[in-house]
Specification:
The complex is a heterodimer of chains A (108) and B (159). Chain A is mostly helical and 108 residues long. Chain A contains 6 helices and no strands. Chain A is elongated and about 60 Å long. The chains are: A mainly alpha (108), B mainly alpha (159).
Chain lengths: 108, 159
């Protein structure tokens, strides 16, 4: 349980950008002092474990571009992020090339 | 570099062209070329003089070529979309998972080698043609194979 507990806490902290104790308290509804103890190695109750698990699942279910962007920024390697930025920039560039509004210069 | 920029650069790599010639050679719509050319000039990928467009600063082109692996991914992605969205007979995209014996694998690699030689031969034949074909009429051909496991490992390694 200890290992699963530290894994789920790490995942929760990473996903939420290392939140403060108060932020975790507001997000999970678990008491501040209890969160402090959990982060310092106290064993989780099954209900607390499920609360963290549900919060993580909820975080992953966000599918707006903005939410996904924030998750990518937190979770993915610099290499993958750079590739995604390249891909998105190219998609935007291609869209701009198709745009009538941009054809203000008649070449040649 | 986008595929639009790539085809324009490849078109101008053979010789300078004016606006209409670029459209004729690449098959790109006029609007796209109208929008792309000024941006490419600003990025020094092209230069413009007396109605003629030519390749720009080679260092800038080389710099834009740095992400060739990403460009290939983009091409493959477009190719898959193209294949699924159009049922015309000329489009072929086969992806098969198959277990091969050592002998079958040898035969398969020999076939790939033959295909490679054929394509190289065709490319060298075109060098001696008097009439140049448009860049838009070139075929995009691809082939290759990999082990299922190494593909999965690659996917996991980079995440």
């Amino acid at each position: 349980m200890k290992s699963a507990q530290s894994q789920i806490l790490k995942k929760y902290m990473d996903l939420n950008g290392q939140p403060t104790l108060r932020e975790i308290c507001e997000d999970t509804g678990i008491q501040l002092t209890r969160i402090f103890r959990l982060l310092n190695g106290s064993e989780m109750k099954i209900g607390e474990y499920m609360t963290f698990k549900n919060r993580i699942n909820k975080n992953f279910s966000g599918n707006s571009l903005q939410e996904l962007g924030a998750q990518c920024d937190r979770l993915l390697s610099e290499e993958i992020k750079s590739e995604l930025v390249y891909l998105l920039k190219n998609k935007i560039k291609m869209q701009n090339y198709k745009s009538e509004a941009r054809s203000y210069i008649k070449a040649a | 570099m986008t595929i639009v920029e790539r085809i324009i650069i490849e078109s101008l790599a053979t010789n300078k062209k004016n606006f209409e010639e670029i459209i004729g050679d690449t098959g790109l719509p006029e609007l796209i070329v109208t929008n792309a050319l000024p941006e490419m000039i600003m990025n020094e990928l092209l230069s413009y003089k007396s109605g003629q467009y030519s390749l720009g600063n080679m260092d800038k082109i080389k710099e834009a070529n740095k992400y060739v692996c990403r460009e290939v991914k983009d091409i493959m992605s477009n190719l898959v979309d193209n294949n699924f969205n159009d049922n015309s007979e000329n489009k072929i995209l086969k992806l098969q998972k198959v277990s091969m014996t050592k002998t079958e694998e040898k035969i398969f690699f020999s076939q790939l080698k033959s295909l490679d030689s054929f394509v190289n031969q065709v490319k060298s034949n075109r060098k001696f043609d008097n009439e140049k074909t448009s860049i838009k009429d070139q075929k995009i051909v691809f082939w290759g194979q990999t082990d299922y496991q190494s593909l999965v490992n690659q996917s996991l390694n980079i995440a």
